Amino acid sequence: MGYIEGIMISACINIVCVAGLAILTGYIGLFSMGHACFLCLGAYTAGILTKFYGVPYFIALLGGGAVAGLFSLVIGIPTLRGKMSADCFTIATFGFGEATRVVMANVNHPYVGGALGLSGLESLTTLPRAMILAVLAVFFARNYAESQHGKIAIAVRDHADASELIGVNIFHEKLKGLIISAFFCGVGGGMMAHYYTYIVPNIFGGTMSTNLLTAVVLGGVCSITGPALATTVLTATPEVLRFMANWRLPMYGLVLILTMRIRPEGLMGYKELSLKPFKRLYRKLRGSGKEGREV
Questions:
Q1: How far apart are CA 212 and CA 264, in angstroms?
Q2: Which is it for the CA torsion 262, 158, 70, 104, positive or negative?
């Protein structure tokens, strides 16, 4: 039971991170290859706050998200203000992510630990907490996508020049999406730190960033619940295929290739998971029950 619970907690952490990245990639149209650095910053911030200052768990997570959002300005302002192309922005985020990881590995302060990392953290990320945070992340991300901000973001993604002509500040909208996505990843990093209770900079490398971006593309770049569903599948699939030993990772890659080949728009495409069909079924069953009692 503990093994399955661990997979579920890992999936919830990934859902929190992917919910933010889906806003940046799907609604703003910017691909990031360095979002693992925001998990790193959030993990260290939350870990330091709880271990050395006794800050409550949820407040520490918010602190980790805030620090990650603040550091996103370091890469966001110079790249987005200069109207850098999407490809150049992707390369810039990759470089920023690797630079952050290397810097953290060489800071030998007791709060950071250098290459040895930060250990001795409390195991505060339980399954109920992780599920609540995952649901809240998807809820807030969907509200953003369905709000006026989300509509403006789509306009910026599809028709940037026309949006600028009618008064939309392209720089502010893109920077807003970057900050929100970094905040979500910072919270996810804090959850990760208090689940594993030990963090080192090397785990926050390019592979982690690629996995997050893969989940967004696989789930559907114009969906919030789609990437959340995809990252759950991607988290569980390597564990399900663990019995295949050396063939596990090739099979994992084959699943991705087939999915992108058969359904290039992603699992959900432009759609969202909804509870409306279940509500309609409930009303129908309830109505038929009342008719039966009347007869």
A1: 17
A2: positive
- pTM: predicted TM-score of the whole model, two decimal places: 0.88
15 in Cβ contact with 233 (< 8 Å): no
d(CA 188, CA 119): 18
pLDDT bin (cut points 50, 70, 90) of residue 1 is very low
Q: Are 204 and 35 in contact (CB under 8 A)?
A: no
Q: Which of 274, 37, 14 is nearest to 178 (CA)?
A: 37
Which residue is it, tokens 């602190």?
63
CA–CA distances in Å: residue 150 to residues 73, 77, 145, 269:
20, 21, 4, 17
Structural tokens at position 50: 């709880």
- Which value, to the nearest 10 degrees, does the dihedral of the CA atoms of residues 127, 131, 137, 143 take? -170
pLDDT at residue 218, rounded to an integer: 85
